[in-house]
Write a structure and sequence with these properties.
By secondary structure, the protein is of the alpha/beta class. The chain contains nine helices and eight strands. Helix 5 packs across helix 6.
Amino acid sequence: MELGVCTSPPSAERAERLVSAGCDYYEPSVAGAVMVEGHEQFVAGLDEWVRGGLAPRSANVLLPGDLAVVGPARDEARLADYLREAFWRVHELGIERVVFGSGTARNVPDGFDHGEARGQFAAALQLAARFAEHARAGGAEILVCLEHLRSAETNLVNTLAEAGELAEQVGAANLALVVDGYHLEEQDEDPSVARRFAPLVRHVHVCGSGRVPPRPEDGGRLEALFAELAAIGYAGRCSIECRWTDIDEEAPGALAVVRAAAEAAGLA
């Protein structure tokens, strides 16, 4: 199983250190990194995204918080323009998994009907999947991976079970799921739920308890999660998504903990 870290594009020196520590790729934010610069600036800087042998292969935070996809302020034209450009850039970078979390953008406003909001969110997922398919242009498949988010971050689709049911409802061929160990723990959801949606599970996020980098004491919990993934034959990537204090110092140990747990569970 390939292991990566969620981080902004690293310098060549940092990338080399991450690779030597066992990192296979990195996962930037779409809203916070990929879409920050204008189109021309992005094109001019394409060569800067691969440094020291490290390339982006997945991305998270698809939408900025002010681009609401549910509620009365939803602007489908703006959403479509954003997704068209975002997935074009994703394709240019060679990114294959785009995590649709974006809790603020999908938060249901007070007083707005949750059933209607769920329908709007389903439409946004369908739209994202459509632009991802258009962007691939015969290249590698780009999957939109719906993320279940804890209730502290959004009030819509908080469990893996809810995410799986919604993904099945939307039914887009390139819409998948990310299994996030942190949100499973925060919502007190058993990792075995992943077995219900085995064909849809195409990406994984992990961290230490409390969103810190994984530590040796997190090994047992990670191994339990990985055992469920091994049971469904998971063969995708796994990104460490945490709050780094000093990534250069913390990443080697964090990657070693995750690698050991994966090997113990049969996901080597």
